[in-house]
Specification:
The complex is a heterotrimer. Chain A is mainly α. Chain A is built from 14 helices and two strands; from the N terminus they run H-H-H-H-H-H-H-E-E-H-H-H-H-H-H-H. In chain A, helix 3 packs antiparallel against helix 4 (95-119) and helix 4 (95-119) packs antiparallel against helix 5 (124-143). Chain B has a six-stranded parallel sheet, with helices on both faces. Classes of the chains: A mainly alpha, B alpha/beta, C alpha/beta.
């Protein structure tokens, strides 16, 4: 932010760098003027809680998008891994162990995507469209179409804590989001793995010639996406005290929207994880704010679409200049 | 660009730290302590702020329910704010959180799922906001009342009528709603209990309460079981889809719901009978219960919304 | 037809790209437009073809001033531009490409294939070219694709044809063929503006030479009355001591040895070795297999049999990462496709193959990395604002230096350079040669692939020639001539 102060001020550059943050602040200012209950601690906690599931998925999605790919199966992975751990809990396995196993399953589902994309040389859109259907179908088979719930889930403190618990007055899942943010911030911007991720998105052939093991990196990236979707699945299962067979449908779109709102190009190669967090917050503030303002659900969808369009068009305009 | 993220990271940390201080330290908790039952503060109808979250507004049934609430509210100058949960439990819970933040006086919930709604109802309980469940119940939390029609009874009535028009031991098919949905489970239960030993249910398949699915699922069923004489559809939408599939064949259809489209179809004979619930009435009953509550009257834990059988013969 | 550009000026922001430039071309004339990258040639040509609008100045055609509304206007006036990177659609057929956007239609609005084929065939006959109109254009050789481009402009009644580096991707025979076509067009009264870095071609085909430098036209010559040294001097604004620096190699141990290297149907039984401090040139026509050998050696492409020794130890190479581990670096011939991430920072490009060196406990030591990258930028005299500028923002020569910096940075002991000076201007060329000298002095073994015969003979120690996937000969550069290399490259034998 301040490192470029020596150069003359340039509004265009300023917008490209700060656009998402400016949009978020602007949105917060508008909503808090229109509704005084917005800027209260309980509501902000609410808001962060609502944002965290989308943010968790979006962090993983961003890695995928940085390589120029897309992962449509995250919503289905969320549901399937949530259902797996719920089943385990009902069968007497301790919730913490069940969550860990669920997350590992999520990572494995991601690895399946990654393997098909890397070694099958298939388009990510098609592969994950297919696995989305497969994972969703498996969820229905596993749950028999019914939500999974039971006293073993409802009476367990550790099960309830993940999605409904508070630590020092802050919802526990917000810590999960922040921890994930820090870990994946470091992975994306401070490690060789992250740099190689950007390189693959920038020019896969050149990255390969420069010694990047493209296939390995791709598989790991889809593992990350699957793993984070599964973590979100654990949070949601706990939050709803049940594993819903159709949980997370459409969540991939919200995650993609957060990534794009945060300034990551769908073509891959450029983006910041802070942008994605801001993007998720923008969507969260929009949802929460419009609910508080009493805007009808029908109009909310239109407004959300328009905001995404504006963000993308502004970004395109800057890219051209 | 890396500097940005670093700064943002720091500011986030500071923000969270600040929030700790603001919210005060405390031990790890799940939910908050239940507030004691407080005495009802009486309110005039025009002063009541109602928040409502409906499972979906892409189904005419719930649109009618909303109309019932809205009409009554308009008459009495009550403010109602309505959200569409788009059949997403997580979204519904968020909407209820936001209604709690808004400090509405009462919340009407038509749950997407009776289990998944529990945490949200508890949250409203904690904030001392009464909750009315509508059309579907909740498996936990404290409810002021549940306004619903008896789905088991509806299934039973549909079964009885189907027996009457297709004759004993006839082959019939059942179109089920969204797997796991309360209405699907209960209507199925009532129907199957009734027809056991009286009708031959050759196949049961889910068409997700959806008209288009009803059409395609029925087409498939007809391929396998061309000789069925009757269909029980767990809602009107699926029945309307199924009616398109059977065309001129003499197959009787009976369903449950009573949407305007469904009732029109009964009138022209495409559907033979509907166990009609009255979504509009349900909405009106829900709001009436709220008025009663705020005027200090005692209200029942369960309010049954009326159902009645409408047949094509009567309709004509 | 005569076109004059008078007093053309153009600036982008504060950057004055053209300053009061005059240029003219007549029908039936071949005129070279020379200058380093960034001298303003492309901007001037884009103004002539209407892609850009001049800030001031006039375009006069046969005495009449011309104003363009858009790029199609220029075509209407008979001016065509064949760009260096051909913009055709590889997956479409030749005939579809030739009539793209200009399809002939029947009365009923349907495509009139018959007339289109007739017209295309007639135009290609005019060029003595025999090309199947129904093949996908991507399957044609680059030379034939170029001929299609020329044919396309002829169908538009072109009076003035601008050719930007037309020979860059052509083999010697294809260049000869193209020259025949140019001479033919010249007889038909077409004026040709020929832009190229290749001196030899300029002196073979052009009638006049205009030299640009820093946005000005600095000299105009009749080709017959000037020489290479004069032109180079005008282009760079100073005397270039000698075009190629001298080689004073000191050989050490064998760095790399290949035996019986075969990829079925691509190259067979390739064996050679290269020593510490040696600059080995690989010559051969395009498609002879010289590039493919190196790609397989580096692990980009697959090979079937063969043994590789690095520093006398047998090694297995399955992918570029293995090759890099064994100290091999590879500058590919197509830097935009395989050499650079154009929209990434220079630093990210240079650092990419060396990331492991800067990882400590899994984290990148960015401070250390940046110091290292700044050092490389300085050492290779890459002209840029700083390391965060994108690779795209650099000129061709500086882009090439970035790719070189990547491999210098990994400390490669064996460097394979495929067309290291292609599309690089004269000044930067010399800097690349000097760097190659410096590297071999420090014991690096370099294998250079080049289509430029002069370069092969002017700057190497030993030449291996490949023809149809096999090594046909090996000559010490000290006794090599262009004729000898060409003989081997076309499958002939040297009489000893």
């Amino acid at each position: 932010m301040s490192s470029e102060t020596k150069q003359p001020f340039n509004l265009g550059q300023f917008y490209t760098k700060m656009g998402p943050l400016v949009a978020l602040i602007g949105l917060v200012v508008i909503v808090s003027i229109l509704n005084t209950s917005f800027l209260t601690i309980p509501n902000l906690m609410n808001l962060l809680q609502q944002v965290s599931i989308n943010a968790l998925i979006a962090f993983g999605m961003q890695f995928v998008i940085l390589t120029g790919g897309i992962d449509l199966s995250v919503g289905a992975i969320l549901a399937l891994s949530g259902a797996i751990s719920a089943k385990l809990i009902l069968n007497g396995i301790s919730p913490i162990l069940a969550f860990i196993i669920g997350v590992i399953f999520g990572a494995v589902f991601g690895a399946v995507n990654g393997f098909l994309i890397a070694y099958g040389k298939a388009a990510p859109f098609i592969v994950t469209l297919a696995t989305m259907s497969i994972f969703r179908g498996m969820t229905y088979v596993l749950t028999n179409g019914n939500p999974i719930t039971g006293p073993k889930m409802n009476d367990s403190f550790s099960f309830q804590f993940i999605g409904q618990g508070y630590l020092f007055g802050v919802p526990f899942q917000v810590y999960l989001m922040l921890i994930a943010y820090i870990i994946f911030y470091i992975l994306m911007h401070k490690t060789a793995f992250g740099r190689r991720t950007f390189a693959i998105g920038g020019n896969q052939k050149a990255a390969f010639v420069a010694g990047v093991k493209v296939n390995h990196i791709l598989i790991w990236i889809y593992v990350v996406a699957g793993l984070l979707a599964a973590v979100a699945g654990m949070v949601l299962t706990s939050q709803l005290s049940s594993a819903q067979p159709d949980a997370g449908s459409g969540y991939e779109m919200d995650a993609i929207a957060a990534v794009v709102l945060g300034g990551t190009s769908l073509a891959g190669g450029t983006g910041k994880i802070s942008g994605t967090l801001i993007g998720a917050l923008i969507i969260g503030v929009l949802n929460n704010g419009m609910n508080l303002l009493g805007i009808s659900s029908f109009y909310q969808q239109i407004v959300k679409g328009i905001v995404i369009l504006i963000a993308v068009l502004l970004d395109r305009k800057q890219a051209k200049n | 660009m890396k500097k940005n993220s670093k700064k943002f990271l720091t500011s986030l940390t500071v923000l969270t730290a600040g929030l700790f201080l603001l919210t005060g330290c405390g031990n790890a908790t799940v939910g908050k302590k239940n507030s004691n039952d407080t005495k009802v503060t009486k309110k005039a109808k025009k002063d009541i702020k109602v928040g409502m979250s409906l499972s979906t507004l892409s189904n005419p049934f719930f649109v009618n329910l909303k109309q019932g609430v809205d009409e009554t509210a308009k008459k009495n100058d009550t403010k109602v704010q309505t959200f569409d949960a788009q059949n997403d439990s997580a979204k519904q819970n968020n909407q209820i959180s936001d209604l709690v933040t808004k400090k509405v006086d009462v919340i009407i919930i038509n749950p997407v799922d009776s289990d998944a709604i529990v945490p949200a109802i508890k949250k409203a309980n904690d904030a001392g906001i009464p909750v009315v469940a509508c059309d579907r119940g909740s498996n936990g939390g404290k409810l002021l009342t549940t306004v619903a029609s008896d789905n088991v009874l509806a299934g039973k009535m549909a079964g009885q009528y189907l027996e009457k028009i297709v004759g004993k031991d006839a082959k019939v098919a059942e179109l089920e709603g969204t797997p796991g949905a309360d209405a699907a489970v209960q209507r199925g239960k009532g129907f199957e209990k009734e027809v056991k030993g009286k009708l031959d249910v050759v196949t049961k398949q889910s068409a997700n309460f959806d008209r288009a699915k009803g059409l395609s699922v029925m087409q498939n069923i007809l391929q396998a079981h061309g000789d069925i004489k009757g269909i029980f559809a767990q809602n009107d939408e699926m029945a309307l889809g199924a009616a398109k599939a059977i065309k001129n064949k003499d197959i009787k259809i009976v369903s449950v719901d009573g949407t305007p489209d469904g009732l029109a179809a009964v009138k022209n004979g495409t559907i033979d009978g509907i166990v009609a619930q009255e979504p509009k009435q349900e909405g009106k009953l829900a709001l009436q219960a709220i008025y009663d509550y705020f005027s200090g009257k005692k209200i029942d834990k369960n309010i049954k919304s009326p159902i009645k059988l409408v047949t094509s013969k009567e309709a004509k | 037809m005569k076109i004059e550009l008078k007093g053309i000026s153009k600036s982008f922001d504060q950057n004055h790209v053209l300053k009061d430039v005059n240029f003219s071309i007549n029908g039936g004339q071949v005129k070279a437009l020379m200058g380093e990258n960034g001298a303003g040639k492309s901007t001037l040509m884009n103004i002539l073809t209407g892609l850009l609008t001049a800030d001031s100045g006039k375009i006069i055609v046969d005495g009449q001033e011309l104003t363009y509304k858009n790029a199609f206007d220029a075509e209407q006036h008979g001016i065509s531009f064949i760009h260096q990177e051909m913009n055709n659609f590889a997956e479409m057929t030749v005939i579809e490409n030739m009539f793209l956007n200009k399809e002939l239609k029947t009365k009923f609005g349907m495509l009139d294939d018959k007339s289109m084929i007739a017209k295309a065939t007639q135009t290609l006959e005019q060029l003595d070219a025999n090309i199947d109109l129904t093949t996908k254009i991507g399957d044609l050789s680059v030379g034939n694709q170029q001929i299609i481009e020329i044919a396309k402009s002829l169908m538009n009644d072109t009076k003035i044809l601008i050719m930007d580096e037309p020979s860059a991707a052509l083999t010697e025979t294809e260049i000869d063929k193209m020259f025949t076509i140019i001479r033919k067009l010249k007889q038909q009264g077409v004026g040709i503006i020929y832009i190229s870095h290749r001196m030899q071609e300029i002196f073979e085909i052009t009638d006049e030479i205009t030299v640009m430098r820093d946005g000005l036209t600095v000299a105009n010559y009749k080709t017959a009355e000037t020489n290479i040294h004069q032109i180079v001097k005008d282009m760079v604004g100073r005397d270039l001591a000698d075009f190629y620096p001298e080689r004073q190699p000191h050989y050490g141990k064998t760095r790399l040895k290949i035996a019986n290297f075969t990829s079925n149907g691509v190259f067979q039984d390739i064996s050679f070795s290269v020593k510490e401090g040696e600059l080995l040139a690989f010559s051969g026509l395009m498609g002879s297999g010289r590039t493919e050998i190196m790609r397989a050696l580096f692990g980009i492409d697959h090979y079937d049999t063969g043994t590789i020794w690095v520093n006398n130890k047998e090694v297995k190479i399955y992918n570029p990462s293995d090759a890099i581990k064994h100290g091999i670096g590879f500058l590919t011939e197509n830097r935009k496709e395989e050499g650079l991430i154009l929209d990434a920072a220079i630093a990210d490009n240079i650092g990419l193959p060396s990331l492991n060196e800067f990882s400590k406990h899994g984290l990148l030591d960015q401070k250390n990395e940046n110091t290292f990258i700044d050092l490389l930028i300085k050492r290779l005299t890459i002209k840029t604002v700083d390391r965060t500028a994108t690779a795209r923002s650099l000129s061709g020569g500086n882009q090439q230096k970035v790719v070189l910096a990547k491999w210098v940075g990994t400390g490669s002991q064996i460097l394979i350079l495929d067309e290291p000076t292609r599309g690089v201007d004269v000044g930067a060329k010399r800097e690349i040669y000097d760097l190659m000298n410096e590297l071999t002095d420090r014991g690096v073994a370099i294998i250079m692939i080049s289509s430029d015969l002069q370069e092969v003979i002017g700057f190497s120690d030993r030449i291996i020639v490949v023809y149809e996937g096999q090594i046909t000969g090996e000559i010490l550069t000290s006794v090599a001539t262009q004729e000898k290399v060409m003989t081997l490259a076309t499958g002939g034998k040297l009489d000893e």
